[in-house]
Amino acid sequence: MATLEEKLDKIRSPNLQSQQQTKVILSAVEETLKEQNTQPTPTGYFAALLALLNQSLGSGQVNNELTPSVVYLLDVVTPFAPQPLLRSKFTQILTLLAPILLLQDAEAPLIKSSIGCLESLLLAQDSAAWKLPASEISPRRAVAGLLHLAVDHRPKVRKRAQDALRKVLKNPPPSPSTDHPAADLCAETAMKSLNEVANKAALSRKQKKPSAEHDPALIHALQLVKTVALASGGWPSTNIEALCELLLSIAKTGNEHMTMAVFEIFEMIFEGMADEVSSSKLPRLLEIISELRPSSNDTQLLPPWIAILSRGYDVSAQMEPEDTFQKLPDLFILVSEFMESPSHNIRISASECLISFMANCIPDQVIIEPSIYDEKVIEKIAKIAENLLSVKYQAAWMESFNVLGAIFDALKWRANPMMLNVARTVGELRGNESFMGKKEADEVLGKATRAMGPESVLSVLPLNLVKPQKGQPGRAWMLPILRDYTTNTNLQHFKTEFIPLSEAMYQRVLDNGEAAKTMEIKIYETLVHQTWSILPGYCTLPLDLTVAFDQAFAEILANILYKQVDLRLDVCRALKALVESNQTVASIEDEANLLLRSRVSKEDAQKNLTYLGSFAGNLLAVLFNVYSQTLPQSRGPILQTINAYLSITPEKELVETFDRVSTMLASSLNETNGEKTKEKGQKSKEPQMPSTGQTLMDLVITMSAYLPRQSFGPLFNIAALIIVRADEPQLQKKAYKLIPRLAESKTGKVALQERNAELQNLILSSAEKVSVPARRDRLAAIAALIPFIPENELHFIPSVLSEVVICCKENNEKARTSAFELLVLMGQRLAELKGKPINISKVPHMAKGAAPVSASVEEYFTMVSAGLAGNTPHMISASITALTRILYEFRETVDQGVLSDLVQTMDLFLTSNNREIVKSVLGFVKVCVISLPTELMLPRLPTMIPNLMVWAHEHKGHFRAKVRHIIERMVRRFGFEPVNRNCPEADRKLITNIRKTKERSKRRKDAAKEEGDEGDQQNGKRRSRFESEYDEALYSSEESDASDDSDAEVLGKPRKAQKGGSTYIMEDEDEPLDLLDRKALASISSTKPGKLRKAGRTKARTDIDGKLILGGDDDNDDAMVIDTPGGGEEGGVGAYVAALKSKDVGRRGRGGRLKFSNKRGNDDDDEMDVDDKDVSAIKTQISRGGRGGRGSASPRGQGFSRGGGTRGGGFRGGNMRGGRGGRSGRGGIANGRRGLGQEKRHGPAFAGKVGKPKSPGRR
Fold first, then answer.
1. Cβ distance 640 to 576 under 8 Å?
2. Of 151, 587, 1117, 1212, which sits most exposed with the smallest number of CB within 10 A?
3. Residues contacting residue 1043 through CB under 8 Å, at least 6 positions apart
4. Considering all CA atoms of the chain, what is the largest pairwise distance in Å, rounded to the nearest integer?
5. Nearest-CA neighbor of 859 among 814, 904, 898?
6. 472-481 — which CB contacts under 8 Å span 24+ positions?
């Protein structure tokens, strides 16, 4: 809380004009105190302000200029005034403030300040003052005033009064009573106010009047009740019954807002009682709520009543867990009756209440160590639960299943044997073919399996698969349920129940021999798989691990791993679960609820791990062999299992195993050298097994994290031997993976610190022998070493820097990403060790006597910039790309001078003639434009923009699109004027085009918003693709998508997913496109195709001789019907007519010049002027219709069916740009074929195929 002086300082330097008057009055008060030689203490301020208030109200009228400021200052000072002073001046202050509070037209700020003064006064009163009646000038009268203001129509006044009441009631004066002396007064007044408003609302409903004017008042009254309930520790005991009845009657109205408000009040009451002081009221409240039970058919009141009851007993279980548990059977009987209700809402409310009882009202002690009496209570609950499955609750069976599932979850293993009858009944229902709730029944049975164990459930619901009993159904459907829900049970049961089942089923498969598999045999195979899929559940924290997991069982698992490939995954998951589940329990620090969750203590888990460790050596031998026989794509689960057992293998056995694998690896490497030449020419399409060396290296990497320190010497020797083998890239990759693997374990981290110098030398010496596939893993190894570099060996960073920079231009995307991450990591390491010396003389190819430099980000930029002096464009380009990445990462911490020099240097590189260099520079410029400070970039624009514009005319490598995108960014960031001013005159058309495009886009968006069409929604969706405004600014360009992915990679951003809808398929209406056809590619377009014209039917007239008559309108019934593309004007002649009548036809403008529209769609774009000579030439071309013409006058979409009548094709969208047309081909009579009696014409006017419109995707 701020001190008085801090608050007064804010008043002395006000931010608002309205506070100036307060400042003036405060200055006057302080001046007066100085004149009177009075110290500026809270008492001094209080006395002066009280005198001033008395003066401002002397005439009985409120001084609108003086009073608000004085009361505001009094509100600030009063909390700091001594309490005895406040008690003595109570009557005087209340007398002065009462007229203000009673004024009808008083402003809200004045009333709020007055309420603040009253709050401070009331907090200072003692028990004696509170005993005075409200008829006198006493604290009770002040509280009555606050209660009146707490339902005021002004929100701020109402809230301030409620806050004051809450604070007063929460701070009672010292007395034996738990309630505040004014709590009864507040409760009675709030109840009275609520009752009056509720009666008015009820009367309005009866008279069918609109009750909207009563709703706000009712809400305000409920808010006041909520405030009193929260502040007075629930509600005063004497008034609680009347309140409950009133609240339930309001909830009954059916108004959702009222019901929610009533819920909140009960929630506040219960919350207020959830402490030791107020909890004594809770039993009485619950008793009253139970007595107010509504009718069983009251669909409006019953659901809220049930919800309130549920919440009440939830609080009761927190305060008195044992007593609440004993009441549980009675509560179950009370609420379960409502499950018979025909109303779905009532049944749902009742089931949720029962679920809440089970989740909240069963103490942990009842599950861990129940007394005899506790077991009797559980039995009663089980009987009630069993009753829920009787016929009278048939309509509520789905809700009953939810309750039963909650009972199993709450009772856990204590549900056995009390709930076995429930499991049996649900299982019998589930086995009925006509039963509709199979999914819900499966869930209940699953929870029963998890709680009581599969052994108990199968005792009442046997599978009946091996030896089916007569009249008993088979229950193969139980196997998936057992797979999903079995856990923390006896492993011995799997050995006695499921292994014989698996053997019996598998024997039937073997008996079939080599014969074709029937459906029955396939079912047996499926049963075998389902049986073994249950094993991982049995192996998750088994209760009898040390008894059930013996040598015989381990041998069975080993045989399955060797012989049955399909079951390897399940067996590996089971073996892994044995270790990991016990490790999880052993590592838990909080043992409070451990037994409740798992029934396996921390000590038991540790014993289990030690016991499994005795089997680890043999199991690892089996797993190693199986791993070597498995194809690479299936090795993952086996390696994970190996990893789990390595973590519990005794150290001695682990070292022996490592020595054996190392010896085998050494001999394998020697053999590989001899066999390599033989295998070079032999390539097979079948998936090949990796070499023995690769397999053994995988095992060494896995073991490395668990090896003791004495084994690290041989381990690094292995790595040193393999890293230099550039002719075996796969082995080399695996050798590099050792270092990141070691960084995952504690002993490995120690080894990396101790042997850092040795590893640095290994990395540097092998730089020339790195194979291309191993580069990514080499970068990962360097990244793992960087955090462990000692302060005195920072020269390693510049030693490997050139290699990392070159890798920024790798073809492999993952290698590039690793290089960028490593660049950032090295920069961060130098920033951490800022000021530490870097011995440059130890860097390869540097002078021996070179002076050391200090580590810093600026020095790091200098190191990377050295690559700009490289001999090859590739090196220079890579250096620029690397600088781009670290510039983006460290732009806020690096010195501004370094940034300025860097931007200036890149400006020069823009003038390079090498495309590879300039491509990297464009990426750098883009990052500068979007991320560097504006004041740094603006001075560079006069040289940067002309240099950029040189590349705006280059089409290769998306240069034009990249430059346009950068210019767009500049316009967004720096404004149109600075960019346009610095742009060369010849290139300003591009800037103008960008501005016009932007304005046009804005107009379209505005129009779409006004029309309220789908475009606005689409824009909303588009915006949501970006995680931040910066991402949207960076990636939202539609013109340069080709450049965005590489930029995103450099900046360390994830690649964008390709936008949907960028590829289109063109199909015939009758037949869908066959994507397997080789010709299908011709029907796939990257641009959105227009709608194909439908072939229509036109009537052609004939004369007496049967000759066609073209043109003219006649509705002769004898006319022939001929297929033509589209309507009557879309044939050959129709194209000509369309050219003359369409919106694209030339029209005379001002000055007699013809104008041709250059519009696409509905855009209002510029038009093109055409001289009369051009017009006459066009007309001649149209009338002649000869081959090889520059273009017909048909706009796109209204031209010829296949190509066009001329070799040059038609205009493309009105641009008068000639394109290659199609072949003449055979066509209908209307499309250029010679009619009877007509002379042969040279150069057909129109050609094309009738009824076969040109596919929009073809050119």
1. yes
2. 1117
3. 922, 923, 958, 961, 962, 965
4. 130
5. 898
6. 473/431, 475/427, 475/431, 476/527, 476/530, 477/430, 477/431, 477/442, 478/427, 478/445, 479/527, 479/530, 479/531, 479/533, 479/534, 480/530, 481/442, 481/445, 481/446, 481/449
Two structure tokens written together for 1224: 């003449």
Q: Which residues of 82-92 are buried (b: 16+ CB within 10 A; e: fewer)?
A: eeebbbebbee
Give the helix/strand (H/E) hosting 901. Answer: helix 896-909
Q: How large is the average pLDDT for residues 361-388? A: 90
Q: Letter for the amino acid at 493?
A: H
The first and second tokens of residue 567, run together, are 């079951």
Q: Which string of DSSP letters, residue by residue, matches 1204-1252?
A: -SSTT-B-STTS-------------GGGTPPPTTPPP-SS-S----TT-
The C-alpha atoms of residue 658 and residue 652 are separated, in whole angstroms, by 10
Of the chain, the end-to-end C-alpha distance in Å amounts to 76
Q: In the predicted model, is pLDDT for residue 280 greater than 80?
A: no
The full length of the chain comes to 1259
Token digits of residue 406: 């909650």
- Distance between CA atoms of residues 473 and 1109, nearest Å: 84
Q: How far is CA 1004 from CA 37, 749, 805, 879, 990, in A?
A: 73, 60, 45, 43, 21
* DSSP, res 224: H
Label the pairing between strands 1108-1109 and 1095-1102: antiparallel
* Beta partners for residue 1109, in sequence order: 1101
The pLDDT tens digits of the residues spanning 1136-1160 come to 445 555 555 566 665 556 565 555 4
C-alpha–C-alpha distance, residues 439 and 426, integer Å: 12
513 — phi, psi (to 5°)?
Answer: 65, -140
> Which residues are CB-contacts of 822 (< 8 A; sequence separation ≥ 6)?
779, 782, 783, 786, 804
Chain centroid, CA 1182 distance in Å: 61
Long-range contacts of 625-633 (CB under 8 A, 24+ apart): 625/562, 626/561, 626/562, 626/568, 627/695, 627/698, 627/699, 628/692, 628/695, 629/689, 630/568, 631/687, 631/689, 632/687, 632/690, 633/687
1090 pLDDT higher than 70:
no
Cis previous bond, 417, omega within 30: yes
Which residues does 1048 contact at the CB level (< 8 Å), separation at least 6? 1034, 1035, 1054, 1055, 1056
Q: Which of 611, 637, 506, 497 is nearest to 554 (CA)?
A: 611
DSSP string of 99-123?
Answer: HHHH-TT--HHHHHHHHHHHHHHHH
Lowest-pLDDT range of 344-358, 759-773, 826-840, 1077-1091: 1077-1091
Q: Which residue type, as a one-letter code, is found at position 92?
A: Q
What one-letter code names the amino acid at 204? S
Listed in sequence order, the residues at least 6 apart from 298 whose beta carbon sits closer than 8 Å to its beta carbon are: 252
pTM equals: 0.67
Concatenating the DSSP letter of every residue in 1072-1083 gives ---TTSGGGGGG
Annotate 509-555 with DSSP letters as a single string.
HHHTTTSPPPHHHHHHHHHHHHHHHTHHHHTSS-TTHHHHS-HHHHH
Instruction: Dig out the tokens for 316 from the structure.
Output: 């009761």
Is the dihedral angle over the CA atoms 1097, 1102, 1106, 1109 positive or is it negative?
Answer: negative
Rounding to the nearest 10 degrees, give the CA dihedral for residues 1231, 1236, 1238, 1241.
40
φ/ψ of 1123, rounded to 5, equals -70, 130
How far from 112 is each of 99, 118, 140, 836, CA to CA, in Å?
A: 14, 10, 19, 61
Instruction: Note whether 43 and 75 are within 8 A (CB).
Output: no
Tokens at residue 569, please?
A: 């995954």
